[in-house]
Amino acid sequence: MNETAKSYDRMVKKASPGTKSGKTIPSAFCIGGLICLLGQALINIYEHYGAASEQAHIYTLLTLIFISSLLTGFGVYNNIAKYAGAGTLVPITGFANAIAAPAIEFKTEGFIIGIGTKMFAVAGPVIVYGISASILYGIVIYVFGLH
Amino acid sequence: MPQKIGKTTIKTTQMPSICAYAAVAGKKEGEGPLGKHFDILYKDPNIGQKSFEQAESVMQKDAVNTALKKAGLTLADIDVILAGDLINQCTSSAYAARGSDTGFLGLYGACSTMAQSIALAALLVDSGALTKAMAVTSSHFCAAERQFRYPLEYGGNITPTSQWTVTGSGAALVGISGEPPFIKAVTIGKVQDLGVKDVNNMGAAMAPAAYDTIKTYLRDTGSEPRDYDLILTGDLGKVGSLLLIELLSKDNIDISGNHKDCGMMIFDIENQDVHSGGSGCGCSAVVLCSLILSNIRQSVWKNVLFAATGALMSPMSVQQGETIPAISHLIHFTN
Fold first, then answer.
1. Hey, are the CB atoms on A106 and B146 less than 8 Å from each other?
2. In chain B, which among 200-219 make CB contacts under 8 A with chain A?
3. ipTM value for the complex
């Protein structure tokens, strides 16, 4: 073989098509934007029916999580995500899907080692580092007396 | 007795052949260009089983039984089953063979396993060690996804270079029948690694293996690409096929006129949303055990090189930052 890892890497890069960002980014922006619009509409509706601002936000998050999990269960979510990309991944909908999908998938291995263990297979790192970052943030605020 | 004609190239002397073959596949594969060539198509990915892994075992059993039925034999007539799949510890194959009164060898060569199993079966039959051997492999999209990638319903997207694991199983009964397709020679592949780390670009990881094996066979036999009606690779997909042709052309070996790839043949790449093409142990198995062997049997093609390719990584080796080693075994079929 005349190729080295370096020269082959150049060949691979040339032969491999990239993501069609011209199409995927606007699509992600639009669908992600629509989800945010839905979120805002839900907040307004909850507030309209008398919820305090903070409560309205919580109800909205719960509603979005419920809808995403339901759509994941019906096998629809990933079909939307195919076109939405980061549009469905970044909002809380992506997080709900990341928990619901393995929960459905690993039920064949039972409730404890299947669902219990694998449920956080995708979302686990987000939770671990999300909590770690928030603790760090808390310490910084406490130490520097920023509160 | 088989005759060694190169370091890893072995010629048969008793003309072992594929006495019977069968291919079974899933719904998506049935909707592809080769759909009408498959013996059984399953609508339900679970095939009435509790898990996808069990469904894969059912596919293997069905492929073997269909091939046996065509040959007018039962499993008791077979000496050894040489089987492989992608699931941890080759369990789909072992469960499929459970309960049979037949020898069993579980093989792992990733997506190259069909060539590995037929090559070994042919050599064992040619040497006289066995009379009849069954080579069978399978893969299941849902079972492979959950082991190697993400849960099925997860909404993460994959890159355009990635490939779609075929749901299907192909079985080939190897014996000495005097009828084509004959197995003239085999080349056992060497593990190749040109530093590809991207698990979503397995075609690129496997192309150097196919390059090495095809070049070795041509050199050991003193033949040229134009001596063959078809040079068929396992599942390099669009990207891997381009790279293979380019690698060989640098050595002045031109296969662009008679090269095809199972991963590109099994799906309509543009309309079935399979990115770079199909992959998995079942991919080359179902393409070979349907259209390809039929065409050789009917003399449409007289000389076919079948070089299945496999990426030999595991989810753990990828997580540890290892590059992807690959392999390709070759079988020369004649009419």
1. yes
2. 201, 204, 208, 211-212
3. 0.89
